[in-house]
């Protein structure tokens, strides 16, 4: 078969990405929130993607591209297969189906499935390219051949594919589909890790497209992905406000808006978006990714009773639901229970009884599984520590350390190892604090915080469950050092804007320092966030009194 070639102009980029972790070839991770439900198709956005297919096949093809832009990949593949039946000579429907097996921002790629699609079109690359009916269609097909070339690492093939899409974009800058798919390719170059410089490049490409094509789902969607961190989220707010109206039939589109809302700490919008996204799911099914985010937003709002309800529903699905959803459901249970315990400090509450089934996780080759399993065990260990269950605490912590050690030499697991180590250090810091060794505890919290700051920003709620900056700030407050606590809480809020735990800590620090105007402002902002909080939320009376 034809060997992959890489243009000299992108050779440096290939070298930069070739050393990155080899991705799993066909995996699905909870944090990515793939919607496997086939949405209704009346309103998925608007695109103009001309092909030489028959009218009926072209309509099915367009539906497939719309679904793909909204990350409803299985439904998109089915639409493309329908187009193939309607016009078996149209190469673009085969291009589309093959493309559904690469999910750039999720670092997922099923080369075997894509190769099978392409082989249905023709036995060799040359044979397939020979079936293209226009120059444009040949270029699209050539790009997907590069993406799934039989040689090279995933990082190399992704880079070569991005170069092909860059060429298409530069040849015809008015080709909106080439531009949006080029931007999406850029988002996948760092193999599932956030790379700010590349993401900003994608943003500069997408912003004019979103401005000129405000109903294009890919432009809005990928712009959100390019900006969903605290430093850049304001740049994606217009797209977030628009996206759920662009594609109101796509559950993933509705959820995606909350990526920007969470990065800005807009908790009412986070909760509302994920409620709407969950409403698109088949009755009786709880979407792990959507409900994880919904639960986190409810915790910030002080709505612990409703958060407990969703946690209990997810745990029930994990225990008794379809086998196909077992890993994703247990993953969400761990993340939700950990956050529930850490944020509410109800050591004997609903979350305290929940420990995830670690046998559902591949924490040896799957980086996200390692991170999320560590997060679930973090919550269990933290609860055990503060309930005085020393044996359970030590056992959970030892398990986290052992799993991290098993992948010590795997470069694919570097970020996951780092996240796990941050959580382990935070737990050890809490144990030292509980034993009265506050000096070593503070040093360990700060060491963990520095390490966390050097890791990529997560795509959602804190991956480390309880950011160690918050732990350091709370300890300093307890030690009567409000000025030092204030500095820690400000650093925490820079990473997690309007997260209520560090906001409350900062309000208390300002109050202790006699900065009453700033303290009132912060308590007032907390009252705004907690406007629908449970009436017995412990901190509510404090915030109400000091906000006046």
Report on the architecture of this protein.
Mean pLDDT is 91; it is low at 1-31. The protein folds into four domains: 8-21 and 40-263, Alpha Horseshoe (Serine Threonine Protein Phosphatase 5, Tetratricopeptide repeat); 267-334; 361-453, no CATH class; 467-548, Serine Threonine Protein Phosphatase 5, Tetratricopeptide repeat. The protein has helices at 11-18, 55-69, 73-86, 91-99, 111-121, 125-129, 135-147, 154-171, 176-187, 196-212, 217-227, 237-246, 251-263, 267-279, 288-301, 304-320, 326-344, 367-387, 390-406, 414-434, 438-453, 468-478, 482-495, 500-512, 516-529, 540-546; strands at residues 102-103, 108-109. The chain is built from 26 helices and two strands. The chain is mostly helical and 548 residues long. The chain has a two-stranded antiparallel ribbon with strand order 1-2.
């Amino acid at each position: 078969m034809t060997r992959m070639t890489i243009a000299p102009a992108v050779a440096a980029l290939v070298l930069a990405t070739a050393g990155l972790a080899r991705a799993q070839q066909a995996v699905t991770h909870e944090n990515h929130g793939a919607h496997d439900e086939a949405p209704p198709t009346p309103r998925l956005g608007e695109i103009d993607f001309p092909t030489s297919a028959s009218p009926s096949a072209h309509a099915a093809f367009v539906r497939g591209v719309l679904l793909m832009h909204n990350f409803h990949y299985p439904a998109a593949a089915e639409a493309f297969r329908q187009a193939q039946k309607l016009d078996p000579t149209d190469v673009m429907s085969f291009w589309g189906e093959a493309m559904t097996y690469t999910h750039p921002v999720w670092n997922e790629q099923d080369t075997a499935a894509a190769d099978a699609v392409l082989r249905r079109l023709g036995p060799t690359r040359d044979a397939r390219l020979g079936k293209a009916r226009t120059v444009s269609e040949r270029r699209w097909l050539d790009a997907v051949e590069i993406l799934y070339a039989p040689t090279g690492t995933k990082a190399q093939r992704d880079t070569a594919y991005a170069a092909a899409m860059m060429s298409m974009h530069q040849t015809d800058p008015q080709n909106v589909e080439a531009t949006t798919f080029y931007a999406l390719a850029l988002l996948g170059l760092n193999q599932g890790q956030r790379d700010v410089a590349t993401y900003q490049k994608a943003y500069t490409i997408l912003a004019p497209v979103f401005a000129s094509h405000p109903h294009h789902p890919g432009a809005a969607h990928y712009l959100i992905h390019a900006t969903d961190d605290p430093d850049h989220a304001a740049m994606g707010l217009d797209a977030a406000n628009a996206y759920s109206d662009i594609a109101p039939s796509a559950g993933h589109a509705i959820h995606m808006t909350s990526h920007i809302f969470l990065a800005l700490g807009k908790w009412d919008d986070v909760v509302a978006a994920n409620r709407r996204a969950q409403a698109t799911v088949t009755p009786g099914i709880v979407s792990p990714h959507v409900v994880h985010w919904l639960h986190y937003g409810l915790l910030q709002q002080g709505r612990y009773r409703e958060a407990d309800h969703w946690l209990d529903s997810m745990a029930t699905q994990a225990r008794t639901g379809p086998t196909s959803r077992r890993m994703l459901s247990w993953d969400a249970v761990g993340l939700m229970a950990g956050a529930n315990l850490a944020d509410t400090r109800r050591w004997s509450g609903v979350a305290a009884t929940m420990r995830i089934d670690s046998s559902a996780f591949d924490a040896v080759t799957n980086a996200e599984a390692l991170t999320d399993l560590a997060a679930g065990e973090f919550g269990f260990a933290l609860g055990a520590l503060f309930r005085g269950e020393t044996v359970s605490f030590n056992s959970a912590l030892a398990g986290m350390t052992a799993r991290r050690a098993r992948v010590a030499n795997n470069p694919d697991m570097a970020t996951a190892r780092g996240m796990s180590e941050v959580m382990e250090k935070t737990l050890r810091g809490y144990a030292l604090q509980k034993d009265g060794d506050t000096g070593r505890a503070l040093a360990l919290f700060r060491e963990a915080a520095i390490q966390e700051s050097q890791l990529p920003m997560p795509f959602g709620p804190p991956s480390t469950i309880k950011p160690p900056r918050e732990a350091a700030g709370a300890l300093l407050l307890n030690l009567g050092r409000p000025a030092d606590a204030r500095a820690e809480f400000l650093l925490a809020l820079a990473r997690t804007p309007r997260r209520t735990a560090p906001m409350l800590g900062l309000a208390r620090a300002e109050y202790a320092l006699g900065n009453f105007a700033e303290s009132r402002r912060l308590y007032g902002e907390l009252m705004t966030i907690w406007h629908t909080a449970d009436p017995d939320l412990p901190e509510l009376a404090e915030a109400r009194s000091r906000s006046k």
